[in-house]
Amino acid sequence: MANPPSKPQILLPDDLILEIFARADVNTIGRSRTLCSYWNWELGTEEFVLKHLHAAKKRPASIYVHFGVKGRRSLGSWVFRFNVDTGENERLHIPFLRNSQGQFEVIGTDNGCMAIRYSCISHPSNLIVWNPNTDQVTRIPDPMQHHCCICASTYAFLYFPYSVGYVWINIYKKKILDSQSWLTSYSSVTGHWDSNFPCPPYVQGVDSRYVVNHGIVYWLNWNNHAQTSPQCIVHFSIFTNQFGFILIPVEARAMIQRLLICEGCLYYAAVHAKSDSYRWLIWKIEEGNQGYSWELSSQFRGHGSAESPEYLTHDYLITVKDTSQPTRGTQFTITKLDTKNQQRRTLKVVEFPLSTYIKSLNLNFNTIVPV
């Protein structure tokens, strides 16, 4: 490892200065790295990046929403970033060229970075990891290019805990009529796709609304396509390369459901909707010696069409609701709900003149984690 540059004369202790920088925003870090070679090196070390990441996760998160226009492909889709505390938003500029024959999907977000899969005429399938705060981009070879191009192929993306290394997971089928699914994974540490092994019979793919917690991917699973609600939660560990599942109690199953992560714990939100009202039930799932326990954490009743719970803390819940009117284009409302006193506050009303839908929605933080 190269020796660090010579340190400029500073009156404050190093620990105090780095603690101040760890609480600074991404733009401040970027400007500070241009002061001299020493600060460019010091603020780019893995130790400081992880310190800044730890502090960033204590600040309000952002929701990345991928909107799409019905009937169009990638030219009719875009990504917005919403602050869950203030409702402020900005449109992100995707770091690749698109054409009328292409399309892209957001695979997931973690540690401030976004995983995207896109295609166009000259590039049938591409995977990238992008930090929209620093504009760093890394391209990953897509194993789909070596599989059956019309077979089901699903992905997940996550970082190793307390590390700047990440993993891609790809679950696919070798032939379109196969009942057997296979898993292969890519690690940024090794720089290539390492493993390739068969999945259990109950695993046919990764649900696009998966969540990540401490190196484990969780997603809702339907054992039978005729089922109207998921029967279990599948989980996969990147440390052991092993699958498992959590059965969903009958009383917790619903037509609308969502997995949530709150301070290192797994939650399951079930939304029971009627014609003019709805009810949320949020369950906390914990693993014990006797298996998994389900504890009802909170509930809420509302009127009108059901909202989708997206982000949970001990104090509030962020929801997204389609409030479109037939003659006024498309409208989405992002709401902040106080789970203690049941008070609501509208953060943002997003309006589009075209017929729009939400292709994906992910939670993320503003960090300087490299890709």
Q: What gap, in angstroms, lies between the N and C termini?
A: 20 Å
**Number of E-type strands:** 24
The DSSP helix count reads 4
Structural class: mainly beta
Biggest sheet: strands, sense, closure?
Answer: 4 strands, antiparallel
Low-confidence stretches: none
Give the H and E element order.
HHHHEEEEEEEEEEEEEEEEEEEEEEEE
Beta content: over 45%
Any idea what the shape is? globular
Strand arrangement in the largest pleated sheet: 3-2-1-24
Chain-averaged pLDDT = 84
Overall radius of gyration: 22 Å
- Helical residue percent band: under 10%
Please give a handful of descriptors for the protein shown:
371 residues; mainly beta; four-stranded antiparallel sheet; 4 helices; 9% helix; globular
Which helices and strands, and how do they pair?
Layout: H1 14-22, H2 26-32, H3 37-42, H4 46-56, E1 62-69, E2 77-83, E3 89-92, E4 103-110, E5 113-119, E6 126-131, E7 136-140, E8 153-159, E9 166-172, E10 182-187, E11 192-198, E12 211-213, E13 216-221, E14 232-237, E15 242-247, E16 256-262, E17 265-273, E18 277-288, E19 291-303, E20 308-312, E21 316-322, E22 330-338, E23 344-352, E24 356-364
Antiparallel strand pairs: 1-2, 1-24, 2-3, 4-5, 5-6, 6-7, 8-9, 9-10, 10-11, 12-13, 13-14, 14-15, 16-17, 17-18, 18-19, 20-21, 21-22, 22-23
